[in-house]
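Lecture 7 notes: from sequence to structure.

We start with a single chain of 962 residues. Read the sequence below before looking at the structure.
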Amino acid sequence: MKSRTLCRGFMVLSVLSSCLRVGSAQEPFAWQRDYARVTQTGDIEWTPRESRFVAGDCVRYIDYENGSDAHDGASKQRPWKHHPWDARAGGAAAAAKDIDTYVFKGGVVYRGRLTVKERGRPDRPIRLTRDPDWGQGPAIIAGSQVVTGWTRGAGRRDIPEPDAVWKAALDFAPRTVWRIDSGGAAVRLPLARHPNWKSQPEDHKAQWFRWTNDPHPFQPREGFSANDATNLKGCDKDFVADALIYSEFGWVMGTPYPSRVRDFDPKDGSVRFESWTGGGNASIIFRGMRYYLEDKPHYLDDPDGEFWFDKKGSGGTLYVRLPGGIDPRTARIEAGRYPDLIVGNDVAHLDISGLEFRWTTQPWNLDVAAWDYSTTPFGYRADALPACIRIWGRGEAIRIANCTFEDVVMGIQMRAVGVGSPIRNIVVEDNVFRNTDVGAAHFKDGAGWGFSHPVGVLDDVRLYRNYATNIGFRPTRYERGCTFDLSYAQRAHIAGNVVERSGAQAINVYAGKGATRGEVPLVRVLIHQNKAWKTMQNGNDFGGIESWQHGPVYIFNNLSFDARGQREGERSYHGNNPGFGHAYYLDGGFKHYVFNNIAWGLSNDPTSPLVNCAAFQEIISYQNSFFNNTAYNFFVGSRRQAPHAGRNKFLGNVWQSMSERVFRHADPAKTEADGNAHHAGPQKQHFAYETNAYANNVFHDIGQMGVFETSGRWLRSLDDFCGALRQQQSMVADLGVMDSTATLRDPARGDFRLNSESAAVDRGAMVFVPWALYGVVAEWNFYPAGNDHTRIIDEHWYAKDYMTERDNYYQRPMYPLTAVNVDPADYIDGPLENFIAGALRFTPARKTYATISHAALNEPFTARLATRSRHGQDPQVREFTFEADELRTPAIHAGNFLIEVYFMADSDGWLVGKKQGTGYSLTLRNGRAVFRVAGQESDAELLSAVSLADGRWHHLIAEADR
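Now the structure, written as tokens:
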């Protein structure tokens, strides 16, 4: 045997996967395509694809204004009035079946609700669309009704200036009202509120009232309550009692939610109402937090326009006060009648394109909880989660494209209902979402907090090139106002979307599964070329782009600006507070690759209400790589809470204008002296420093460098931080360099190009990012732990059955290799990384190898798991022991598996295997790769066609399909 064989530090074993096939240059992979225009300065511009009219074999035409259900609907000259899925349809329209294309006339408003009654087929989807050659203007499906029959005068003593108010009787109960101006634009009338406020561009809640909370800043007099001695003290009890209240709360999250006032004391202006969950979650209200009251006739006093509705039975009386004293008889007033416009519980192969959705209403009980407490486990109430398009059950092969959702409660809502029900193969592309109360598009697998077992399946969701603006500033209870939300998606691709101004996150993804049993072998989520602009404007403790749970998740080439997260109560009370909004947030996110992103803060001044807390925030998260990102103008660059597990990399990033510190990777001591004293004594916690890597970063205009140790010791300078990394034996301790010149050209004006003299030029990190495969049971990159050159850590991720408590994921079984007869000098530079010696040289003459024992691979693992939901009952937690094949380890017992390895060799030898009689091996024989699998009664082997022992690097995949 020749003197040496080089084995590259990447090897992965997967229990089942299709063999990777490389596409041609003419057919790039989905993640290689452009979904938006990226400018030279780093901006991302929306580039939607144009709508294209496509019709099937059997077409029917619908003209709500001039059609007749008695017509055959087969031509533009004889259209139907109603769609067959409308409960009001009659005649030929009601009897129609097996139609594959429905065309709505342009320039016509269709008013009503459609319930999907048929499933399309793979070769024949059902289409709802518009033909641009039929009608002038948009084809609108509306949830509203034009209000007529106005009379002047409120006729009520509890309405101020009753002669300025108009009223009309309705047979339905709207929660939304719009005035349509002469140009066709809708201007929303707010529900009567106190004070009369308007959303401000830089502080949505600037005109709300503030709690004075006398005498204590946050301890209530009783229950969940607060007081306002400035604005409510001395008011008539009837003025406040039974009103809806929207209030900030804390310590974190804080998105105002609708809740009924339960008690009011005029003596000190105290108001008691329910906390967010009705329980004790985050239940404090701090002095200076903002609130307003709503939905009483007493508040109908805004000369700029308001409405109030007096409900009697299913209808009642609508009272309006229009801007400038406009006579509603001379105006077009739209009142929301329907909360949903297209609904279905078993939908397949449905294509909706080119339509506009307008003017829906919220449920009458605005404070309704989404949970259905009548079931165990709790279900979800469909009436509390309305949407223009709502799929509540099963949904497969659904495409929604080139539609506009404007002035509605919610755009799209899909939830798997029923065990095993899928929401799968969903495409939402090239749509516009504007002025929506709750969000743009939400997708859920059917489970949630407190469930012990999975419900449905959310898989293969693609969101491409959508534009959303002014989203989520009036969310329902338990919602936050997120624009695009995916709860427990197994696969998702989110690219080319632009979100401008949202109450909460622009993009929020829970990947894989939640805290439930069951395993998800394949998780693959890509989030790239998205723009999140002015997010987190109505709450805190979230991020502009946020991801939770299992990976691999790939977040790259995005722009996130001004993820606010304002905490106004604490800021106004203490004089400063950095808020708690983050450009990118991994909230219990594991196995994430976050790279080539721009994080841009509006202000790094904690005394300002415009301050942005952090570019990157993690809690509990680990096994994440942050590299080649640009962060500018934050209080802190990167925050990490509960960092015990280590296993993070911070490589090749640019950090400019961090006012407090760059790295907050542990809780900082209260003072520098405290930190030094704590560091000198015994440490109370263990952090896995040896698995963290810091390298190739560039810094300019920063406060202090940061903290990362259990002591919370302040490390002011680059040298201080590097010295501590070496002392703690971190995997890589080459932190980077301070830039003597401004690293970025003009970031305050959005130019994120590097200055030509910057130290960051050609200093980026090269990091190997493996593609997500099915059921990965081991992944070795062949670089050592910082404190032990014989330990090669395992970096695989598999959402296994027993992974239900994210706090404990780091205690799950992993399969590190032990390098035998290896010296530190045997780690050499490889072609896949530049931040570490990432290849391990095996020398046969010294009998070098890396191994893990059979016993270690097969050691049983015991976990305490819930056997039923936590909803109003004991979850009955008990111990479960996993062993043998249940462990999902490199000790492959049965089934298909795949080996992927990157290596260089100049002689024959062993690459990888687990074989003693039976098992598998991947070796080189006569220079050719030999893949051998042996069972009790038979075995098989496969040889490569060419020699690989040629002194060059090779990427080899071997797959066993039994």
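Residues 336-721 form a domain with the Pectate Lyase C-like fold (CATH 2.160.20). Keep this in mind for problem set 3.
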